[in-house]
Amino acid sequence: MPTIAVRTGFWFLRVTGLMNRSGRDDASLRRKIAKVRAKPVPTPSARLRGRISVCTEQFEGHAVWHLEPSAPTQTTPTLLYFHGGAYLYPVQSVHWQFLGHLVEKFAMRIIVPMYPLAPESTPTEIMTFGVNLFRNLSERYGASNLVIGGDSAGGGLATAAAMLAQDGGLAQPAGLILICPWLDVVPNHPDQVAIAKRDIMLSLPGIDAAGKIFAHGEPLESVRVSPAYGGTVGLPPVLLYGGADDMLVTNARQFRDRLTAENRDVEYVEAQGMCHVWPILPFKESRQAQRQMAEFIARVCRAPLALVDG
C-alpha cells in the first residue's frame, strides 16, 4: 500500500491532470505537444549545478548533457539515460531532479541526450541516433562500464538501442534499467481497459494517437517502433519496473515473462497502487527504487558506487 504522501500526491495529479499529457485523441494530443514545446526546455537547475558537475556537448546536432560527481574517473559507472515523453515531448524538470539525485547520492556519471523527437524525426532516425551515441560512449568509457536506461518511451528507446546494437555486432552494455517502458505502441492488451480507470497519467486513446504519430508510417511491430517484438538473444541483465496503476504495466509484465521464459537475467519490481514512471518521482518508495538502481549498476559494472543513505 502506498504511503499517505503518495496517495495524496496522486490524488492531486488526478484532479489537476498536471502530468497527463497523453491527450484524448490525435487533435488534443497535438495541441498538448504544441503547448509544451512553446515553453523553454528545462535544463539542470542552478541548485543542481552547485551540487554536481554539469556540462553539455553536441552529438549529431543534438545537445548531450553530462552529469558527474565531483571527482569522476575513467572507471566511474556510467548510465546513458533516455528521458520519457512519448518520443514527442522534451525532457522535464522531474527528470533532472531524479537524475541529479542519483549522481549526488551514488557518485555515478549520467549522460542525458536531447535525442531527436517525433513527428519531425522518424523512428529509424531516433533509434539510429541512440545506437550511434551508445557506440560513441562505449568507445569512450567501455561497454562493460556502461548501463542504458530510460523511463516510458525512453525505456523503449533504451531497449531498442540494445537490440539494434546486438544486431549490428556491437558489444552490449553492462545492463538495462527500464522504468515503466513503452515497448508496444498499440494499446490492445485486455487488462489495460480496467487499469485505465486507475491511471492518472495515460489514456488509451492518447497512447494509440501517440504511437501512430511516433511510428511515422513505419510498421507498428518493427523493433524501432515496438521493441516488444525485437530479439532478446544476447541482451544484458535487466532491471525492470512497473506500476500496477499504469496501463503500460502490461508491457513490463509481458517483457518480464518473455525474458524469464528465455532464462535471461531479469529483476522485476512492480509496485501496487503506483502510477506510470513512479520510480523517478521524489516519494519514499521512489527513493528506494533509485537505491536499487544504483545497486544494480554497481553489480553489473563490477565497480562499487558510493551508496549513501538518505
Short description:
With 310 residues, the protein is an alpha/beta fold. The protein is built from ten helices and eight strands.
Describe the fold and architecture:
The protein is built from 10 helices and 8 strands. It is an alpha/beta fold and 310 residues long. The protein is globular, with a radius of gyration of 18 Å. The mean pLDDT is 93.
Features:
310 residues; alpha/beta
Task: Output the structural class.
Answer: alpha/beta
Computed over alpha carbons, the radius of gyration is 18 Å
The count of helical stretches stands at: 10
**What is the strand content?**
15-25%
Give the mean pLDDT.
93
SSE succession: HHHEEEHEHEHEHHEHEH
Q: Can you tell me the overall shape?
A: globular
Q: List segments where confidence is low: pLDDT < 50 over at least 5 consecutive residues.
A: none
How would a textbook summarize the main sheet?
8 strands, mixed
Number of strands: 8
Alpha-carbon distance between the two ends: 22 Å
> How much helix, percentage-wise, in residues?
40-55%
Question: How are the strands of the biggest sheet laid out side by side?
Answer: 1-2-4-3-5-6-7-8
SSE topology sketch:
Layout: H1 4-16, H2 26-37, H3 46-49, E1 53-59, E2 62-68, E3 78-82, H4 93-106, E4 109-113, H5 123-141, E5 146-151, H6 153-167, E6 175-179, H7 191-196, H8 204-215, E7 238-243, H9 249-261, E8 266-271, H10 284-301
Parallel strand pairs: 3-4, 3-5, 5-6, 6-7, 7-8
Antiparallel strand pairs: 1-2, 2-4
Helix pairs in contact: 5-6
